[in-house]
Amino acid sequence: LEGPVFQSPRGTRDILPDEATVWRFVEGRALQTAARYGYGELRPPTFEDASLFLRGVGEGTDIVDKEIYRFEDKGGSDLALRPEATASVMRAYLQHGMASLPQPVRVASIVNVFRYDRPQAGRYREFRQFNVEAIGDVDPVIDAEVIAILWRFLDGLGLRGLTILLNSIGDGDDRPNFIAALQAHYRPHVDKVCGDCRRRAETNPLRLLDCKNAPCQPFIASAPRTLDFLSAENERHFANLRRYLDVMGLPYEITPTLVRGLDYYTRTVFEVVPPSVGSQSTIGGGGRYDGLAQQIGGKYTPGVGFAAGLDRIILNMREQGCALPEPERPSVFFAALGDEAKVVAADLSERARQAGLATMVGSGDRGMRARMRQADGSGATVAVILGDDEIRDRRAAVKDLRGGDQQVVDFDDLASHLAARLG
Ligand code: AMP
What we know:
Layout: H1 17-36, E1 40-41, E2 47-49, H2 50-58, H3 62-67, E3 70-72, E4 78-81, H4 86-95, E5 105-114, E6 126-135, H5 140-156, E7 163-168, H6 175-186, H7 195-203, H8 217-221, H9 232-247, E8 253-254, E9 266-273, E10 284-288, H10 292-295, E11 303-309, H11 310-320, E12 332-336, H12 339-354, E13 359-361, H13 368-378, E14 382-386, H14 388-393, E15 395-400, E16 406-410, H15 411-422
Parallel strand pairs: 1-5, 7-8, 12-13, 12-14
Antiparallel strand pairs: 2-4, 3-4, 5-6, 6-11, 7-9, 9-10, 10-11, 14-15, 15-16
Helix pairs in contact: 1-5, 2-4, 5-9, 12-15
The chain binds adenosine monophosphate.
């Protein structure tokens, strides 16, 4: 039954052991940073009722219209793999009655997410996000807090040259005025903008502002600005947010064209971009979503959060030469010569593991030279050599694989000797 070897599906990839060491480090940093701000971990399920995303992300968005992995299970339920985490976190908040807990409820998650996107460098169909949400509070001190988590996390990884883009897009009180002004601005030019923007002008006007197509850029540059339309209350919210960011030492650039194209996004929106800005280069983004809970059938519940793409963060760390953890290797390799020696090696190595060391036993029948090549290949720092003489005397030859010097150690002392030397 030999045929072509299977490949992982397009847009997915295997994270192999050396790479996984880096992932564990970055994910650990993410949750530790969030914990420093009082955020506990929440682990939502990988799939949900499809309608949670249809309503919580929104029909009319690319994510729902073109990218969602939606399927019917054997029981006939209409499900979808999560294309993002915020809707799940809000669902969990409502489902578990978390409104009765002290507010806001602060949670962080590491999630894999699925989007039928066009794969390329830094863009996958299964990718991973660090997701942070604070639900149940409108205070801009919370907006500043989530921005701080994202910034401190990235800065702590050693990433440099990043920029926080910041804007406020108002809410239901001032948005209609802004949309009317924006549509009036575009109306004389509909024949000069791209096809997408011609459509957006009717269906999703806010999105006009983040079109990447060249013909649309002059109209974006001269477009009205959300900040000039904010209600007095939203203006105060934004001014306070900036004061908090300033005292917390968080650098940001007001970016009037930054938007999120859904009605339930309110007030604060932000993004973090790396030095080479391009359409796919955003490392993380978020904002306030005071309208989301009602969109998925709950009571009015304000919230603010972000999602940061871990795949892109690790890509940027490699590009920038940030310090990465060393791949993990065993510290001891048991080089046994002969069947009897291998049995002894199995016993002694297990005892060394009980003493807390990472050890490996050489497998297969090998002569001395091949066995030592195996030892070098393992990456271990020390080899424990066991041949006939060693078995007879119940003493092992312990060889330093870097320096080369060798020492004889009684079997009974071996685990403690190795632990003292390497632990
Ligand atoms: P979003 O949920 O669309 O705001 O995305 C949040 C972050 O996830 C982005 O800033 C990216 O870093 C990352 N991201 C989005 N789409 C992809 C993708 N297809 N592949 C890898 N990372 C992605």
